[in-house]
């Protein structure tokens, strides 16, 4: 990041009519945005939530409260504007960009961006989710999409996802990348009961035992126990950083994607903006791995990018504080 | 609150295309707003941040990093639109209503609502802050103002305050109301150094020793160790409840005001909406006394209503989720 722009932003913030640092994370956001933009002259920018969708073979193991066809049904709901992410992105003036990274159903809709690498992953309990080559293609698709959105004038991205069953591969990836136990990283996802939770833990343990992902090789982790939309989001994060765009990270699945991205490209970490703390069990651990401290504590567990979209107004607020507040001098206020 | 409207709202939320309860606090907010409004047919409403200002005799003890004249200077800054609260309320489409509850300087400005009860409190280290009659008048002024704003069509209030030195009486009030030690409730306010922190703790201990406020008598606590803007905000909270308006509670000082309000009128508690968790030491304790769990974790410590204003978009989001999301039926999405 641009240290000079960050320092200039800190100096400007300290001249504004407030005790130095008293706007806390809002001031830190302004400094980070300036570092990313390379200037302390920040503007409110166009925003997009990129919702990537994919299906998961591990649904065979009964790891989700919802049937697998809901992935495609919800994508149609996104396209028709009826889902939570449409409402919340709309409130924040952000676009929703829907991407098919690997949905099982064939959806024909011109509003859907097709980057379908394969029609869902294989069941990770029985073998690898995908080939390494497919993992690479999915990550590259995400990188390319960030590049396209940057070229279209989008100034900040947020990650979102839809994929029935996708907390299970996310937990497996987190366990594999960080050497954690299934008990610590497996939660209830969309709301499985106690028996479902046991099945999820067993699925994660068994997926790792069967596939032996290499914790030092993020692409191997994706290919062995990952998901197509998770890989795509990892690429999106890398692409955001490569194009100097801040990227707001949603909940558990998105945070695991960001973790993979930063293992592949450590420099991407400076471009991450955390959003909410999810109810999903492994989220706090995943955030901790990235050194991220969530801004919103709303007990949400929906995904889709909903928590990230709710943070957009905070980014705008940080920019407007910098741009619109009076200084001690201009307002004639005495300093401490 | 209207239990029927709340139950109807819960039913409506559970038909929307998301796992039941997965929007967490956003769903709880929608239910609370419906209970307050008495209907599940919610609308995005007009919002106002009420910033009450007053001066504090205890500034003589060197408890603030800023000189006392900053209270009046900052009120002029509010009126001229240059403060953080102007920017953040503006971002949320909310009005800023400035009220002189007891500023020492005589400010003549038609945009300032004058409810000046006295020109600042007396030094609580030496004796009572104000008379009991003055405390009653300040609380009543706040009640009346909530009534006026409700009559003008404002649909949700937020509390804000300005008063150099006002974390000291707030800490004293919290200690007196809850039987807590100065060490637990005194923090750095706008940013005093270690010596200043020691002076604040001594001032709080000494104010309680000198005045012996009656913990069972909230008006006695206000009169003995309180502040005029804090009393006014307590009244505002009571008035909000009386007029069936939700009221978003800002940081430490506002939360102490809400605590006093709920000691006076316990039914007011159901109308409170928490906002952020302040950096100020006593805030978590004060929130806990009210059973409030903050939505934003931004490390802020500015006051003025800034944390509350940042929560307004979350209220709008809760309303729009209820109004705009598709149902499982309408979107053709399978249920769990």
Automatic annotation (TrEMBL), chains A, B:
One of its GO terms (biological process) is cobalamin biosynthetic process. It comes from the Bacteria. Pfam families: DBI_PRT (PF02277). Gene3D superfamilies: 1.10.1610.10, 3.40.50.10210. Its EC number is 2.4.2.21. It catalyses: 5,6-dimethylbenzimidazole + nicotinate beta-D-ribonucleotide = alpha-ribazole 5'-phosphate + nicotinate + H(+). Keywords: Cobalamin biosynthesis, Glycosyltransferase, Transferase. It is an enzyme of class 2 (transferase). CDD domains: DMB-PRT_CobT. GO terms for molecular function: nicotinate-nucleotide-dimethylbenzimidazole phosphoribosyltransferase activity. Catalyzes the synthesis of alpha-ribazole-5'-phosphate from nicotinate mononucleotide (NAMN) and 5,6-dimethylbenzimidazole (DMB). HAMAP family: CobT (MF_00230). NCBIfam families: cobT_DBIPRT, PRK00105.1. This is Nicotinate-nucleotide--dimethylbenzimidazole phosphoribosyltransferase. It comes from Cohnella zeiphila. The lineage of its organism: Bacteria, Bacillati, Bacillota, Bacilli, Bacillales. The gene is cobT.
């Amino acid at each position: 990041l641009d240290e000079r722009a960050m320092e200039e932003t800190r100096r400007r913030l300290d001249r504004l009519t407030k005790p130095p640092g008293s706007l806390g994370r809002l001031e830190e956001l302004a400094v980070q945005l300036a570092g990313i933009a390379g200037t302390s002259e920040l503007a409110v920018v166009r925003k997009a939530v990129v919702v990537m969708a994919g299906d998961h073979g591990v649904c065979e193991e009964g790891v989700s409260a919802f049937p697998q066809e809901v992935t495609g049904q919800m994508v149609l709901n996104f396209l028709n504007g009826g889902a939570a992410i449409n409402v919340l992105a709309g409130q924040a003036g952000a676009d929703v960009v829907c991407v098919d990274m690997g949905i099982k159903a064939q959806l024909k809709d011109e509003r859907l961006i097709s980057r379908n690498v394969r029609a869902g992953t294989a069941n990770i309990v029985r073998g690898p989710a995908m080939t390494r080559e497919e993992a690479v293609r999915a990550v590259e698709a995400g990188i390319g999409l960030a590049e396209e959105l940057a070229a279209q004038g989008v100034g900040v991205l947020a990650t979102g996802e839809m994929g029935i069953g996708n907390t299970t591969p996310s937990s497996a990836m987190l366990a594999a990348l960080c050497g954690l136990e299934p008990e610590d990283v497996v939660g209830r996802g969309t709301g499985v009961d106690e028996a479902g939770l046991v099945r999820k833990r067993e699925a994660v343990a068994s997926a790792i035992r069967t596939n032996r992902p290499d914790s030092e090789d993020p692409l191997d982790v994706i290919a062995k126990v990952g998901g197509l939309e998770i890989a795509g989001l990892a690429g999106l994060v890398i692409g955001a950083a490569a194009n100097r765009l801040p990227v707001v990270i949603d909940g558990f699945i998105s945070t695991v994607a960001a973790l993979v991205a930063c293992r592949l490209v450590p420099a991407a970490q400076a471009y991450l903006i955390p959003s909410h703390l999810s109810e999903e069990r492994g989220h706090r651990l995943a955030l901790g791995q990235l050194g991220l401290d969530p801004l919103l504590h709303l007990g949400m567990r929906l995904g889709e990018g909903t928590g990230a979209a709710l943070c957009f107004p905070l980014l705008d607020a940080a920019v407007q504080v910098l741009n619109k507040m009076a200084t001690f001098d201009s307002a004639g206020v005495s300093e401490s």
